[in-house]
From TrEMBL:
InterPro entries noted in UniProt: COX7C/Cox8 (IPR004202), COX7C/Cox8_sf (IPR036636)
Main localisation: mitochondrion
Organism taxonomic ancestry: Eukaryota, Metazoa, Ecdysozoa, Arthropoda, Hexapoda
Membrane topology recorded in Swiss-Prot or TrEMBL: Single-pass membrane protein
Localization (cell): Mitochondrion inner membrane
Segments crossing the lipid bilayer: 39-60
Top-rank lineage group of the source organism: Eukaryota
Cellular component terms (Gene Ontology): mitochondrial inner membrane; respiratory chain complex IV
Full protein name: Cytochrome c oxidase subunit 7C, mitochondrial
Similarity section: Belongs to the cytochrome c oxidase VIIc family.
Amino acid sequence: MLTKTNLLLARNLTKSMVRFHGHGGIPGENIPFSLQNRYRITGVFTVFTVLGFGSPFLIVRHQLLKK
């Protein structure tokens, strides 16, 4: 009986969260940058990707060359 009540409460909570806290169906509405300029998006993506993948290698190189 207790588990049935818990399942019912969890289902109702999930429904209300989706209903009241969901974003609209407009693509790009819930991201922190604008999708209007494709060249800016490409540049920002490239910079963040290069920094994300390259920084560990640069840090290791710096540590190995340091004396």
